[in-house]
Amino acid sequence: MTRLGVCGWPVAHSRSPQMHNAALAHLGLSTWRYQKLPIPPHLFEATVRALPDAGFRGVNVTIPHKEAALQLADAATETAQAIGAANTLTFEADGRIHADNTDATGFLSPLKTPVYDQTALVLGAGGSARAVVYALKQAGAKEIRVWNRTKERAQALADEFGATTGDEPGEIIVNCTSIGLHDPSATFKALPLRADDLCVGRTVVDLVYRNGGTLLLNTAKANGAEVVDGLEILVAQGAASLERWTGRTAPDQAMREAVVDIAAP
Ligand code: NDP
Fold first, then answer.
1. What's the number of CA atoms in the CB half-sphere (13 Å) around residue 172?
2. How far is 246 from 97, CA to CA, in rounded Å?
3. What is the four-CA torsion angle of 153, 129, 63, 27, rounded to 10 degrees?
């Protein structure tokens, strides 16, 4: 048995096992399995180091372990180093641990409009916002503004990646906060946006996903904006991880169907 998994604390809510196991089945990798690995922070490093001997080829890493994952790796991609966090670890045959961050490509690949020369507003300054700001910068965005509830965090993120702070909508608007996940009615109260801002000519991306779509995305869609659902980003980052571990092209459609089926709440 070749094992894969997702390390987090908590990790019960993760849709990655269903998504990856559907992909493994589709690829005919019948001796591979992907599982949840709930690991508290103080046990993270020791547990990860024991995983290769337990048959693991690699793991995804989610909150709160992404920085620790990068730190324990023997080698890391330029992307993971620049973001300062890893969401994918690969256990190589020679015993080395390799770190990558597929959140950046996971954000960029579902976008239909090229980012180059566009203005962008990023809402949030947490882990996913770091990956998104880095990705926008790499893809040549003309101007990136960062807004966050806690202003100091927005400023620190903007300073680090050569962006600015502000809340003026850009041609691309990305929600990297958890707003809209549990209480849709908070969306336009907590975020510095009006429904009219989400209009034709703009691309609206919501990292949050829920059954029936978020209020932010549904409003943007109704107003004629181009939209990218968080589920597409989940699939794209997962596909990139799976390709790293298996060397096979990920079956995007099988992965999409598996997460749509179980999307919650
Ligand atoms: P973090 O915990 O690192 O950051 C959370 C962000 O949300 C911070 O900017 C925080 O602001 C903000 N926030 C939280 N509560 C509020 C509130 N009540 N009002 C305003 N802002 C608030 O999380 P991540 O960056 O990892 O994830 C953010 C969201 O994106 C989550 O909902 C997650 O599920 C989703 N996500 C989706 C992915 C996908 O594949 N689709 C991948 C990664 C994340 P402050 O700094 O002020 O606390």
1. 30
2. 15
3. -170
Convert the pLDDT of each residue in 220-262 to its tens digit.
999 999 999 999 999 999 999 999 999 999 999 999 999 986 5
The reported pTM is: 0.94
Q: Angle at Cα 28 formed by Cα 22 and Cα 33, nearest 5°? A: 55
CB of 131 shorter than 6 A to ligand 1: no
**Is 66 in the active site?**
yes
Ligand 1 centre to CA of 123 (Å) is 9
Cα 151 to averaged position of ligand 1 atoms, centre (Å)? 14
In this predicted model, what pLDDT tens digit does every residue of 36-87 receive, in sequence order? 999 999 999 999 999 999 999 999 999 999 999 999 999 999 999 999 999 9
Ligand 1 contact via 156 beta carbon (within 6 Å): no
